[in-house]
Predict the 3D structure of the following.
Amino acid sequence: MRIIAFLLILNLLSPGNSIAQTYNDGTIEYDIMLDGIRDSNAIRIFKNAYMVLYIRGHQTRSELHTSMGITTTIYDEKNGSAVILNEYGNQRVMLRLSSDQYKLVNKKYRDVSIELLKDTKNVNGYSCKSASIKIKGGSGYLVYYSPVLKFQTLYNGLPVVMDGFPMEYESEIEGMKVIYKVRKISLDAVTANLFDLPSSGYREVKFEEIYKP
C-alpha cells in the first residue's frame, strides 16, 4: 500500500468586505473535479467527490470523500504530528506520523515559489486573487485565494498563500490533476471531539511499512 493512498498530496467577512479578519474556527467544503482525465475508473471514483476541512485553533482535520471511501488527515500544528485514517469498505487503517515523518513525506511541497498573478475570479461569492505555485523540479499549480479570509493555523493539505485562504486550486492525486473549489464555508465553532482518535476498529500500520523513499 502506498503512502499516496493515505495523504492528500499535495490549510468571514461578507463577500463585499475588503478588510481581512483572522478566524480561529471554520468548516470549509470543497467540490473535487478531475481536469482533463478520461480514464473511466478515475471518473467513477471521483464522481461527486468532495473534501471537508475543519479548522480549530492549532488543529486541522481534512476528510477526502470518494466512491472508494474516506481518507482523513488530522494534523496538530503545535507539535507537527499527524494521523491518517483510511476507511475503504471494510478496511480501516491508521497511520501515525511524527513531525519529522510528516515533514519527510511532504518535503517537496516545502520548497516552492509563488508568483502573484493579475487574474481575478469570483468563487462562491468571494472576490479572489490568483497566484501560481511552482514546486521545485515539478509542475506549477494555479490558486485563487480570498484576501479577506484567514485562519490562525496553517491549512493542512492546502497550498500555502501568504495573503489569504485558497478558495479554488489545482492539485494532484495519484498523478491526476484535480481542481478543488469551495462550495460552502461556516465560521461556527468546531467541536473538539472531531480531533479525537479512534480507540478501536482500526489496524495500525508503521510508517516504515508504507513510506517508500
About this structure: The radius of gyration is 17 Å. Residues 1-18 have pLDDT under 50 and may be disordered. Residues 99-105 form the longest helix (7 residues). DSSP finds three helices and 14 strands in the chain.
